[in-house]
Amino acid sequence: MAGDALLKVQSVETFYGNIRALDGVSVEVNRGEIVSLIGANGAGKSTLMMTICGSPQARAGKIIFDGVDITKMPTHLIARERIAQSPEGRRIFPRMTVMENLQMGAGLDNLKYFHEDIEKIFTLFPRLKERQSQRGGTLSGGEQQMLSIGRALMARPKLLLLDEPSLGLAPLIVKGIFEAIKKLNQEEGLTVFLVEQNAFAALKLSDRAYVMVNGRVTMSGSGKELLADPQVRAAYLEGG
Ligand code: ATP
Fold first, then answer.
1. pLDDT (tens digit, 9 = 90+) per residue, 17-35?
2. Is residue 36 assigned to a domain?
3. Which of 85, 90, 54 is nearest to 69 (CA)?
4. Pairing of the two strands 83-86 and 34-38
5. In the 3-class helix/strand/coil scheme, how is 165-183 assigned residue by residue?
6. Fewest C-beta in 10 Å: which of 112, 182, 185, 217?
7. Which residue, judged by its Cα, is nearest atom 1 of ligand 1?
8. If you measure from the C-alpha of residue 164 to the centroid of ligand 1, how many angstroms do you get, rounded to a whole number?
9. 40-70 in b/e burial notation, b at 16+ Cβ within 10 A?
10. pLDDT tens-digit profile of 216-226?
11. ipTM, 2 decimals?
C-alpha cells in the first residue's frame, strides 16, 4: 500500500516558542485506513493533529495531503483540501442547536448535499435526530462527541481527524462511538486518523498505529501487533 498514502507527515518539527513539541515525526495514513496515534499525556499527539491542520505550523519537515504540500498552507485552505477535524474537547457551538451545528460544518461548498448528508448522519447517530432542536451545550458528553463527528462529516472529508473521541465518556458510549467510526470506514471508505489515550479501544479499531513518546514516534505496527507487544502492554494497556 506504499503508493496509496493519502497523508504523509515527513520529519515534522513543531515548536511552542522554544519548546520542541514534535521532534522529527513521520507518519503515513493510506487511503481507506483507520490509523491511530497513542501515547501518554503531553507526548505531542494533539500537537501533531493541530500541525496537520496548520495551527501551529510545522517549523521543519513536510506534510503532503493527497499529493498537495499543505505544510505552509493557512488553516482555512487546508480545510478546503477536505481534511476535517473533531478536536479535543469537541468544540461544538453550545448555543446553537444540533441542526445549526451540523449546518456550520457543511460550509457553502456542500450545501447542495445538505439533506442527503444530514440523513446519513442521523442514520449513523439516531440520537442526534431526536435532539436536532436541542442546544449543543445541553447535550451529554457522548452526544456532543457524536455532534462533533457529525459536524466534521458535513464537510465531506477525505480524511477525518479525531482527537480523543473517548475522552471522559463511559465505556458503553465509547463502544458506540467507535462502532460508528468503524462503520464509516467500512461502508463509506472514510479514511480516519485518530489520537487516543484509550490505547486498547484505539488499537482494536485500527488497521495500523503509531506510539508517540516525548514528541517522537517510537513504534509502529498493525493494531494487532501493538496490542500484543509487551512494551506497549506494559506502558499503555495494563492497569489502565
Ligand atoms: P494530551 O493527551 O494531554 O492532550 P498530547 O499527547 O496531545 O497530550 P500535546 O497537547 O500535543 O500532547 O502537548 C505536547 C507538549 O506541548 C506538552 O509538553 C505541552 O505542554 C506542550 N504544549 C501544548 N500546547 C502548548 C501551547 N499552546 N503552548 C506551549 N506549550 C504547549
1. 999 999 999 999 999 999 9
2. yes
3. 54
4. unpaired
5. CCCCCCHHHHHHHHHHHHH
6. 112
7. 41
8. 13
9. eeebbbbbbbbbbbbeebbeebebbbeeeeb
10. 999 999 999 99
11. 0.92
Sign of the C-alpha dihedral computed for residues 118, 112, 108 and 183 taken in this order: positive
Residue 96 C-alpha cell reads as: 446553537
Q: Give the CATH number for residue 94.
A: 3.40.50.300
Question: Looking at the chain, how many residues does it have?
Answer: 240
Q: What is the DSSP secondary-structure string of 109-143?
A: GGGGGHHHHHHHHHHH-HHHHHTTTSBGGGS-HHH
Residue 158 in any domain: the answer is yes
Q: How many domains, in total, are found in the chain?
A: 1
Indicate whether 230 belongs to any domain: yes
Residue ranges around ligand 1 (CB below 6 Å): 16, 19, 21, 39, 41-47, 197
DSSP conformational letter for 58: P
β-strands 159-163, 60-65 pairing: unpaired
Amino acid found at 70: I
Q: What is the pTM of this model?
A: 0.92
- What is the DSSP pairing of strand 208-213 with strand 34-38? parallel
Domain span at residue 146? 32-54+73-237
For ligand 1, atom 14, name the residue with the nearest CA. Answer: 44
Q: Which amino acid is at 83?
A: I
